[in-house]
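Hi everyone, sorry if this is the wrong subforum. Our group has a chain we'd like a structural model of before ordering constructs, and none of us has done structure prediction before. Sequence below.
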Amino acid sequence: MRYFFIEPAALQKSVVAIGGSELRHIKNVLRLKPGDQIRIFDGEGFEYDASIHRFFADRVEIKIARKYPGARESPAQITVAQALLKEKKMDRLLRHLCELGVNRWIPFICERSVPKPAEKRSSARKQRWNKIVKESCKQCRRSKLPEIIKILKFEDLLAYDQACDLKIVFYENESATLKTLMAPDPPAAPRKILLILGPEGGFSDQEIEDARAAGCVVAGLGSRILRAETAAIAACTLIQYLFGDMG
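Answer:
Right subforum, don't worry. Here is the predicted structure as tokens:
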């Protein structure tokens, strides 16, 4: 069944409208007709059974039949904080992390970050990231859109969320892996988990010390040096395996 996003504010009525690019996709690409069944999600965790009602030149009207909680969200609420990478790398990474069930995405700037965009450019990037998560949620059938936080400095990131049950910084020079760190005294099913990953050049020694002082666990991802975007995907997958809904 086809899956579409509609803003939750527009879903207060039994008949709602879809326009723009989604209209063109429904009408010209999918060639859906009145009476065809579709599914809607609102980005806040709910899905809706619906059907095509009628077409107009600038919109298609949808009839809502039933609302219910989505069933594809992980019990682990994972926030991934990623040091800024080059634009296409960040775009691709966000798409993959959305598929892996990340709840929140925090881009940040640290000592060895190469791209350091101006405020105006940062706003444009965030708009593009919001579009990417909507497209990715449609593809993987998630009902909740990951939250995208504005670009932070590393020191602000460390102070950002003290409510996490577990905060992990991944560092290529750390020999202890998640397996060895969790074996002696595993945390009791943490629900809110913050994963922090560095840029292409890695974290500085001082940043790692600052992270430890802020209560972060420092872990490695094995003996091989991974690309920054590969490390984020690997870290998120491991956490979903240990505490979420994968594996």
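For your construct planning: The domain at 77-243 is CATH 3.40.1280.10 (Alpha/beta knot). The chain has two domains: 2-69, 77-243.
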